[in-house]
Specification:
The complex is a heterodimer of chains A (393) and B (164). With 393 residues, chain A is α/β, with parallel strands linked by helices. Chain A has helices at residues 8-11, 14-18, 23-32, 51-62, 75-89, 104-116, 133-139, 159-165, 188-200, 257-270, 276-288, 290-313, 338-349, 375-391; strands at 38-39, 99-102, 122-127, 143-148, 170-175, 204-208, 233-238, 251-254, 326-327, 351-352, 354-355, 367-370. In chain A, helix 12 packs parallel to helix 14 (375-391). Chain B contains 5 helices and 6 strands; from the N terminus they run αααβαββαβββ. A 4-stranded antiparallel β-sheet of chain B has the order 2-3-1-4. Chain B has a two-stranded antiparallel ribbon with strand order 5-6. Classes of the chains: A alpha/beta (393), B alpha+beta (164). The complex binds pyridoxal-5'-phosphate.
Chain lengths: 393, 164
């Protein structure tokens, strides 16, 4: 039998057939064929990686650091990660046994789920949220159980909502604050009741804190720091957002030793190690990147303030996002679905935004607008969106 | 104080940024921002608003720039200030710094031709009593000026238009 005679449904795994392609992809296809589009659809920093980091990576190549590294990453980098986490967020991890350098937070999410979730076990996923969580849970044989957060609660998850979603099959909760796409943050007081539920039901938490540095009003509080939570938490983070290193594909994951070693098994067989060039760049970013991070954070904060106020001036209600670089205004008043709105806005005014529904439950009636773009672009985008709203009033 | 610094940094980067925009960015009223800017201008903390120009791209307007290291004898009572003033008053002097090290004053001069600058150095600068010696360096190419990289590849947005 030749390959082509196998029916398509037979040659692909059932797991992969079950997951849908990301809704973001469709918008990318549409927007990328058009010219002069102003894009508020980009989920990454508009800064190029700071020069010292680029330079350090080039130097590592020149000096011949081109071989595999230790599976969990070069020890100097793991030590820097440990002291960075301690200094910035007061979380303590042992660089020898509890930290793994990964190919982006994306890989960290994957190995965290695969190392902990058995087929049929449920993982509660906070939505609107990053598009990869539910598919990765499904691919691991788990069952994603979405909880939609609400605008009224500033897109935070409440204890009651969490309790209601828990079943005897629940294994873990995937948390992600500051949140993509809502920009929501959860303070220590908000997280404490969540931790009680986690403890009571004996659950794990996968906490994706990749936007931790991009917290604009209050310092980020790590879930792992809550009483009794360190042993139940897998902390996921990386360099993509705070250090403007998306294309480098480098991140890290921290967990209590037993879980870290389990994740390391998957990592060592699938990745061997993260790219050595990226590891040496990341090392420099941690050693000498503080000032640059602060400069970028200030710039995002200013643009956040700008876009939220500008939206309210043109009549688009938008809560003040506490972190990340997304505004998530409501478009309910227009009567359009978020998808219709985003498509019409792109066609009529050439502004690309991402319809909220692609981020799952609770995202409908909203659009995600990334303000990680130049002030000139933001101003033009606001004008165009204002004109669009007038026309469709 | 923080607001003042933030506004200064924004204006230093883009002198054309308007008050309503700044007000939104720093989360203050337009009146407050205007008042802070007025005060900065009055105190001569903000001295002027100017564009960074790449003259090499303007036909026939390239001109010549030289950096001149000047050694002088300081004068009793006034130190370097008096000779500095006699130098910076010349309109062709674009910048003047007192520096530490092997020489005392660093003078930046703009001129139309090299000979114009050469005659400025020999007839005006060296003619000053307190000037002991000068060393002239002609600028051949500008890579970066006032924090702005000329022809910066980093300025092109290389990101894909929509991403997660
Ligand atoms: C919440 C969240 N987690 C993880 C990622 C992936 O990050 P990385 O580039 O480190 O794989 C993203 C990227 O958009 C994100 O928004």
């Amino acid at each position: 039998m030749t390959i082509s005679s196998i029916k398509q449904t037979e040659r692909l795994s059932q797991a992969v057939q079950k997951i849908r392609p990301s809704g973001i992809r469709r918008f990318f296809d549409m927007a990328s064929t058009m010219e002069d589009v102003i894009s508020l659809g980009v989920g990454e920093p508009d800064f190029v990686t700071p020069w010292n980091v680029r330079e350090a990576s080039i130097a590592s190549m020149e000096r011949g650091f081109t071989a595999y590294t230790a599976n969990p990453g070069v020890i100097e980098l793991r030590e820097e990660i440990a002291s960075y986490l301690d200094k910035q967020f007061s979380t303590l991890y042992n660089p020898e046994s509890e930290i793994i350098v990964t190919v982006g937070a994306s890989e960290a999410i994957d190995i965290a789920i695969r190392a902990t979730v058995n087929p049929g076990e449920e993982v509660i996923v906070i939505e609107p949220g990053f598009v990869a969580y539910a598919p990765i849970v499904s691919l691991a044989g788990g069952v994603p159980v979405p909880i939609g957060t609400k605008k009224e609660n500033e897109f935070k998850i409440t204890k009651e909502e969490l309790e209601a979603a828990i079943t005897p099959n629940t294994k873990a909760v995937m948390l992600s604050f500051p949140n993509n796409p809502t920009g929501a943050v959860m303070a220590k007081e908000d997280l404490l009741p969540i931790a009680e539920v986690i403890e009571k039901h004996n659950l794990l938490v996968l906490s994706d804190e990749i936007y931790a540095e991009l917290s604009y009003d209050n310092k980020h509080y790590s879930f792992a720091n809550l009483p009794a939570m360190r042993d139940r938490t897998i902390l996921i983070s990386g360099f993509s957002k705070a250090f403007a290193m998306t294309g480098w594909r480098i991140g890290f994951v921290c967990a209590p030793q037993d879980i870290a070693q389990a994740m390391l098994k998957i990592h060592q067989y699938t990745m061997m190690c993260a790219s050595s060039l990226a590891q040496y760049g990341a090392l420099e970013a941690l050693q000498n990147g503080r000032e640059q991070v602060e400069r970028m954070v200030t710039s995002y904060r200013q643009r956040r303030n700008f876009i939220v106020k500008a939206f309210s001036e043109i009549g688009l209600p938008c809560h003040l996002p506490g972190g990340a670089f997304y505004a998530f205004p409501s478009i309910e008043q227009t009567g359009m679905s978020s998808e219709t709105f985003a498509e019409a806005l792109l066609k009529e005014e050439k502004v690309a935004v991402v319809p909220g529904d692609v981020f799952g439950e609770g995202g409908e009636n909203h659009i995600r607008c990334s303000y990680a773009t130049s002030m000139d672009s933001l101003q033009t985008a606001i004008e165009r969106i204002g004109r669009f709203l007038k026309k469709h009033r | 104080m923080e607001d003042k610094l933030e506004i200064l940094r924004l204006l230093e980067e883009n002198g054309r940024m308007d008050v309503p925009t700044i007000a939104k960015m720093v989360d203050k009223s337009e009146e407050d921002v205007q008042a802070i800017i007025n005060k900065l201008e009055k105190e001569k903390i903000i001295l002027s608003y100017a564009a960074v120009v790449d003259w090499s791209k303007v036909n026939d307007r390239e001109g010549v720039t030289a950096m001149i290291d000047v050694k002088v004898t300081p004068q009793r009572g006034v130190g370097f200030d008096e000779v500095a003033e006699r130098i910076y008053r010349f309109p062709e002097v674009k910048a003047l710094y007192l520096v530490s090290g092997a020489y005392d004053l660093s003078v930046v001069i703009d001129g139309n031709t090299m000979s114009e600058i050469a005659s400025f150095v020999s007839e005006k600068l060296s003619a000053l009593d307190s000037v002991i010696s000068t060393t002239t360096h002609f600028r051949l190419k500008t890579y970066k000026h006032d924090g702005v990289v000329f022809d910066d590849e980093d300025d092109d947005d290389k990101r894909i238009v929509v991403s997660p």
